[in-house]
Amino acid sequence: MQLLQKGGRLLNKLFNIRPAEWPRFLFLYLILFIINAGAVWGEAIVIAAFLEQVGLEALPLVLMAIALVSFPAIAFLPHFEEMMALASAKIFVLQYPDHPLTIELQKFATRLSLS
């Protein structure tokens, strides 16, 4: 019993959680676990359905296509000093409405909404 109490105090210090906060913490952790389990389950279903419909032969081509599509998406958001300075503290397009990236994103959103 004494070992259990010491372990509980260690976890309180490790996670910076007060004893009264544990039920809320465990509830949120349970929600996170359910979301992650659902995502893994859903991904497995999508992969199984893809392999059933298309077959294993097309899988390498699809993986290469995903990589080719991902590369321009990563290059789309270049390193802007203004964006790095915000460090997720504020929304970039609201903080810098006249920035070239914001203007391009507004044009892109307008084109999407018109189509």
Which terms would index this structure?
mainly alpha; about 120 residues; 2 domains; 6 helices; flat; single chain
Structural commentary:
- By secondary structure, this protein is mostly helical.
- It folds into two domains: 1-76, no CATH class; 78-115, no CATH class.
- Helices cover 77% and strands 0% of the residues.
- The chain contains six helices and no strands.
- It has helices spanning 2-15, 22-53, 59-76, 81-86, 92-95, 100-114.
- The protein is flat and about 65 Å long.
- The model has no long low-confidence stretch (mean pLDDT 81).
- Please mark out the parts with pLDDT under 50 across 5 or more consecutive residues, or reply none: none
Radius of gyration: 23 Å
Helix content: over 70%
Count the domains. Answer: 2
Structural category is mainly alpha
Average pLDDT rating:
81
Taken as a percent bin, the fraction of beta residues is: under 5%
**Principal-axes shape call:** flat
The topology string of helices and strands comes to HHHHHH
Number of strands: 0
For the terminal residues, how far apart are their CA atoms? 66 Å
Structure annotation, total helices: 6
User: Describe the biggest sheet?
Assistant: none
